[in-house]
């Protein structure tokens, strides 16, 4: 079950969402509602909550002001708004889903199922040593350089970071800057245990030593490097374990 709250200043909108959740999302237990960010903050600091349905425009500050007040949050966020211009900001604040008003029931169900899968997998992995299900890491790929190309052992790649039309490739012993986009590496490494965890990062799953819940969540690699996970990528990453 998912403990959830609704943060929405319009009583009619709260009622509609409340009724939809009761009828179509039985895995959700609605434990509170808030009409502004101050009330919402009180709820999330006093109760264990896995899911917050969050409107953007509210009294006493907007949704992003609320999220800034809870920097170490462990709940997932589903934005519910009539304004699509906030989609990028929602993504950057690690929203799990973005629902437009009027709420589409099928999309609401999808958003809840997505969060439910994430939370269930996180619970299953609590206090366990992370063991990737996929260990295929032997192999080589070629990457261009000024004089031709280099051959890299796939197992030596810790992670790749997007840098405009370039990609920074972090190996066990050095860093390379390659004149290829991260999409190129996503394709080149598709047959190996590499996961895209963010629009800017792809990691070697076998090098992950720690998973941390929270604001979007993060992973720590074997070299101690911590990288943030986009909420929209959590399900994919957790599926490797």
Explain how this protein is built.
The protein is of the alpha/beta class and 241 residues long. The protein folds into two domains: 2-125, Rossmann fold (3-Layer(aba) Sandwich); 140-238, OB fold (Dihydrolipoamide Acetyltransferase, E2P) (Beta Barrel). 30% of the residues lie in helices and 32% in strands. It is built from seven helices and 15 strands. The protein has helices spanning 11-24, 37-46, 63-69, 87-92, 105-125, 182-188, 231-238, and strands at residues 2-7, 28-34, 51-54, 76-81, 97-100, 140-145, 148-153, 157-163, 166-171, 175-178, 194-198, 201-204, 208-212, 218-221, 226-228. The strands form four sheets. The chain has a five-stranded parallel beta sheet. Strands 10-9-8-12-11 form a five-stranded antiparallel beta sheet. It has a three-stranded antiparallel beta sheet with strand order 13-14-15, with no helix packed on it. It is elongated, with a radius of gyration of 20 Å. The mean pLDDT is 88.
What is the ordering of alpha helices and beta strands? EHEHEHEHEHEEEEEHEEEEEH
Radius of gyration: 20 Å
Number of helices: 7
Helix content: 25-40%
| Number of beta strands | 15
Parts with pLDDT < 50 across at least 5 consecutive residues: none
Structural class: alpha/beta
Instruction: Identify the CATH class of the largest domain.
Output: Alpha Beta
By CATH, the superfamily of the largest domain comes out as Response regulator
Instruction: Give the CA-CA distance, first to last residue.
Output: 22 Å
Strand content: 25-35%
Write the CATH fold name of the largest domain. Rossmann fold
CATH architecture of the largest domain: 3-Layer(aba) Sandwich
């Amino acid at each position: 079950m998912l403990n959830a709250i609704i943060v929405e200043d319009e009583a009619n909108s709260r009622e509609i969402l409340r009724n939809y959740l009761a009828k179509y999302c039985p895995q959700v237990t609605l434990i509170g509602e808030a009409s502004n960010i101050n009330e919402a903050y009180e709820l999330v600091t006093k109760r264990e909550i896995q899911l917050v349905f969050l409107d953007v425009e509210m009294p006493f500050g907007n949704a992003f002001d609320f999220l800034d007040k809870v920097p170490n949050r462990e709940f997932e966020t589903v934005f519910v708004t009539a304004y699509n211009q906030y989609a990028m900001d929602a993504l950057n604040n690690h929203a799990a889903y973005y629902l437009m008003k009027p709420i589409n029931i099928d999309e609401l169900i999808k958003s809840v199922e997505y969060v439910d899968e994430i939370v269930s997998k996180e619970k299953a992995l609590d206090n366990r040593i992370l063991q990737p299900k996929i260990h295929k890491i032997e192999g080589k790929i070629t990457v261009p350089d000024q004089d031709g190309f280099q051959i890299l052992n796939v197992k030596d790649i810790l992670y790749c970071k997007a840098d405009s039309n370039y990609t920074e490739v972090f190996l066990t012993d050095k860093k390379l800057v390659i004149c290829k986009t991260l999409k190129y590496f996503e394709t080149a490494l598709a047959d190996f245990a590499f996961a895209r965890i963010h629009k800017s990062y792809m990691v070697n799953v076998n090098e992950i030593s720690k998973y941390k819940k929270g604001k979007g969540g993060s992973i720590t690699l074997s070299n101690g490097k911590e990288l943030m996970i986009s909420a929209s990528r959590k399900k994919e990453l957790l599926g490797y374990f």
